């Protein structure tokens, strides 16, 4: 940088000092009003039940001072990191190099994931965590079809997860069917439920769609909770059979896989098997989604997200297009649910609350809607990061919220915001997230 | 049967509550001809378009599309997407409605959705990658590239549609409509916002669509230079009713048209109509 340009930036910064002070003063005023009652005055019930109160002006002053100082720091940071008012705080070259790194990140991540059971063979905790992360990666990829590609905001995704889990649990415990028979059935049942949800909400958009899907998720949970004869209600379903290695059980018996292979039995075998099972399921989801995007149906989903009216003018049946998006997403949710049931061995309605839907949706949004790699990274960050901060105990939610706010400031369209074209003549160029629509429900 | 007009609108009426947007409108669009629908703002032109393309359900009247093979489609009874799919009526919009986050090529591929869906065995065969689908996709890409070449955007095929210049977006939207291989192409103000050079290029494009491909065109347009140059037949509307029709020359000299456009001052109006030609 030349001396001249340094000087000019310096000049523009000094000129902004009154602006910064004004902004900080305003923030401090807001803080004063807000906290004068919350912190400035302390009320308590006196010994005879009467109200006693006293002021804490010192605390109030320090809070207001903190806000004043903090506001200056934030404003300075904004000016240092990027031009004020700009949406993107990450400079273009960094974004380009990030997208370049992204090309190698995916394969590298896959190789690492394949090696996880080898590297961490003796660390049961890490293996369990990896299985959990992969479950959410799969759920995220499933929901990505609905939210990321078709642009339909679904707040009740956990319903399909529950349908899948209960389908497997009930079929396996009542009829003794094996996991490999029940898995496609669970997926199919969830897909049917997805289509059933799709029908009434076809005409809804945006907020209304979100509310109805949210209600649908709750309805499924409440039905499971109250239909005691079938689902066992709040007691859940227990004794769900563990998956077998294509008919060979993974246990200590003489027919077990360990005995057949002539190796010593270890309970870790089953964990490793479960790990590769969910990895295979997640990769299947990924593969199918990538293929679907390049098929006419996938393009129609994305076109639907971009402009529904134009889709209809081009002769695309928006009804079936939306239904297939719901059904496809639900099917993957059903697979993940069946896996969840076989892994836990016990399921109850408590596992399928709205919080799960919100978590999966947060993964999709943070990852960058429509981006497969972004969703995987977001699942790793959200689930893995959540575990990482376990040491902070109650503060971890705070850290978590802070991290989400920061991601939304830096990358408002998710970790990987740009869109890769599905077909190209000469060269596939990433499409900036500014152009890609988010869908309207 | 091919002597019949491609589109015949018979006593079309569209009411919104108490407001009558279109009343007893009858006109026909000839096969392989360009028919223009003109009129002052608020005359009900776009409402007619929305009725023809299924975005509105007409209150009364009949809209018939006569196909080359003698098949007839009753457009007032078909639902939105079926008009494009079965009756083969394609349209563009007054305010451009491309898929901005998709590339120019992708926009043209989406337009071939129904053909590709059949070829992909409604996704199932396409998922396992059968060769018939791959051939169909190659043909679709070839058709799309052909159109990109026609509208001079071949080198921008892989750019996002939202990144194209305004005039390019207009032409891309027409190409996208043409990729559905329509029998009738409906254009809602295709020259709006174009400069003189772009308007001339547009006229050329529309004439080549009519001449080389034999696609019938129905267009709404305010730019009189475009209308007068390329139209074979003009229908003039005002306040929801047809006030005149005929060749560009007949319409230009019609005092009723001039009055509708510029009040009663006919001399001034005549000057404007002349100037536009």
Q: TL;DR?
A:
The complex is a heterodimer of chains A (441) and B (277). With 441 residues, chain A is mainly alpha-helical. Chain A has two domains: 2-83, no CATH class; 100-410, no CATH class.
Plain-language structure description:
- By secondary structure, chain A is mainly alpha-helical.
- In chain A, the strands form two sheets. Chain A has a two-stranded antiparallel ribbon with strand order 1-2.
- In chain A, 68% of the residues lie in helices and 3% in strands.
- The two termini of chain A are 47 Å apart.
- In chain A, strand 1 (41-45) and strand 2 (51-55) form a beta hairpin.
- Chain A is built from 17 helices and four strands.
- Chain B has 277 residues and is of the alpha/beta class.
- Chain B is globular.
- Chain B is built from twelve helices and ten strands.
- In chain B, strands 6-7-8-3-9-10 form a six-stranded mixed β-sheet, sandwiched between helices. Chain B has a four-stranded antiparallel β-sheet with strand order 2-1-4-5, covered by helices on one side.
- In chain B, strand 9 and strand 10 form a beta hairpin.
- The chains are: A mainly alpha (441), B alpha/beta (277).
- The interface between A and B is large, with 39 and 47 residues.
Q: Which properties best describe this structure?
A:
heterodimer; A: mainly alpha; 2 domains; two-stranded antiparallel ribbon; globular; disordered N terminus; B: 277 residues; alpha/beta; 12 helices
List the helices and strands and how they pair.
The complex is a heterodimer of chains A (441) and B (277).
Chain A (H helix, E strand, L loop, with lengths): L2 H13 L1 H22 L2 E5 L5 E5 L1 H25 L10 H28 L4 H26 L8 H18 L3 H23 L4 H21 L1 H4 L5 E2 L18 H5 L6 H27 L1 H11 L1 H6 L4 H27 L1 E2 L6 H14 L4 H17 L7 H15 L31
Antiparallel strand pairs in A: 1-2, 3-4
Chain B lengths: L6 E10 L2 E11 L4 E5 L6 H8 L7 E7 L5 E3 L5 H6 L3 E3 L12 H8 L1 H7 L4 H4 L3 H20 L15 H13 L5 E5 L7 H18 L2 E5 L3 H7 L2 E6 L2 E6 L1 H6 L1 H8 L3 H11 L1
Parallel strand pairs in B: 3-8, 3-9, 6-7, 7-8
Antiparallel strand pairs in B: 1-2, 1-4, 4-5, 9-10
Helix pairs in contact in B: 3-6, 3-7, 11-12
């Amino acid at each position: 940088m030349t001396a001249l340009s340094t000087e000019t930036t310096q000049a523009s910064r000094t000129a902004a000092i009154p602006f910064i002070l004004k902004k900080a003063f305003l923030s401090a005023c807001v803080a004063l009003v807000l906290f004068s009652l919350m912190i400035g005055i302390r009320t308590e019930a006196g010994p005879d039940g009467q109200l006693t109160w006293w002021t804490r002006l010192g605390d109030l002053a320090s809070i207001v001072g903190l806000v004043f100082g903090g506001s200056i720091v934030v404003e300075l940071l904004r000016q240092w990191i990027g031009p004020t008012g700009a949406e993107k705080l990450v400079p273009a070259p960094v974004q380009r190099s990030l997208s370049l790194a992204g090309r190698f990140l995916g394969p590298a991540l896959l190789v690492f994931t394949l090696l996880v059971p080898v590297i961490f063979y003796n660390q049961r905790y890490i293996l369990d965590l990896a299985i959990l992360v992969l479950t959410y990666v799969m759920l995220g990829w499933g929901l990505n079809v609905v939210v990321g590609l078709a642009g339909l905001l679904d707040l009740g995704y956990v319903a399909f997860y529950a349908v899948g889990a209960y389908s497997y649990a009930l079929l396996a415990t009542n009829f003794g069917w094996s996991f490999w028979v029940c898995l496609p059935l669970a997926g199919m049942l969830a897909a049917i439920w997805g289509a059933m949800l799709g029908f009434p909400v076809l005409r809804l958009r945006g907020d209304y769609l979100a509310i109805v899907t949210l209600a649908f998720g709750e309805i499924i949970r409440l039905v499971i909770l109250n239909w005691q004869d079938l689902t066992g209600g709040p007691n859940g379903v227990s004794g769900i059979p563990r998956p077998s290695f294509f008919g060979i059980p993974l246990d200590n018996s003489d027919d077990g896989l360990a005995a057949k292979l002539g190796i010593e039995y270890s309970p870790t075998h089953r964990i490793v098997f479960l790990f590769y099972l969910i990895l295979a399921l997640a990769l299947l989801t990924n593969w199918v989604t990538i293929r679907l995007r390049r098929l006419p149906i996938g393009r129609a989903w994305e076109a639907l997200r971009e402009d529904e009216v134009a889709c209809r003018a081009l002769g695309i049946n928006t009804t079936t297009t939306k239904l297939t998006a719901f059904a496809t997403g639900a099917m993957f949710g059903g697979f993940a649910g069946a896996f969840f049931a076989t892994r836990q061995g016990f399921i109850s309605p408590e596992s399928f609350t709205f919080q799960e839907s919100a978590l999966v949706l947060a993964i999709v949004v943070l990852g960058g809607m429509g981006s497969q790699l972004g969703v995987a990274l977001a699942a790793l960050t959200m689930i893995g990061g959540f575990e990482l901060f376990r040491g902070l105990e109650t503060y971890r939610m705070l850290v978590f919220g802070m991290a989400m706010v920061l991601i939304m400031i830096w990358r408002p369209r998710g970790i990987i915001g740009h869109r890769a074209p599905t077909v190209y003549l000469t060269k596939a160029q990433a499409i900036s997230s500014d152009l890609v629509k988010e869908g309207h429900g | 049967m091919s002597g019949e007009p491609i589109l015949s609108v018979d006593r079309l009426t569209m009411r919104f509550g108490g407001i009558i947007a279109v009343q007893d409108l009858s006109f026909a669009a000839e096969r392989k001809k360009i028919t223009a629908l003109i009129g002052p703002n608020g005359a009900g032109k776009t409402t007619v378009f929305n009725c023809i393309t299924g975005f509105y359900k007409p209150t009364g009247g009949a809209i018939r599309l006569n196909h080359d093979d003698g098949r007839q489609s009753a457009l007032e009874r078909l639902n939105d997407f079926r008009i494009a799919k079965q009756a083969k009526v394609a349209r563009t919009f007054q305010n451009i409605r491309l898929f901005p986050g998709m590339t120019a090529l992708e926009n043209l591929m989406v337009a071939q959705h129904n053909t590709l869906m059949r070829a992909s065995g409604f996704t199932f065969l396409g998922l396992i990658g059968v060769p018939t689908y791959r051939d169909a996709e190659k043909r679709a890409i070839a058709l799309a590239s052909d159109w990109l070449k026609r509208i001079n955007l071949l080198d921008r095929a892989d750019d996002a549609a939202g990144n194209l210049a305004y005039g390019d977006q207009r032409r891309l939207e027409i190409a996208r409509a043409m990729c559905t291989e329509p029998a009738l192409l409906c254009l809602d103000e295709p020259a709006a916002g174009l400069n003189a050079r772009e308007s001339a290029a547009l006229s050329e494009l529309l004439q080549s669509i009519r001449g080389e491909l034999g696609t019938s065109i129905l267009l709404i347009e305010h730019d009189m230079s475009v209308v007068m140059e390329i139209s074979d037949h003009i229908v003039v509307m005002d306040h929801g009713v047809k006030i005149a029709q005929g060749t560009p020359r007949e319409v230009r000299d019609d005092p009723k048209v001039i009055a509708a456009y510029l009040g009663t001052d006919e001399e001034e109006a005549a000057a404007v109509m002349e100037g536009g030609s």
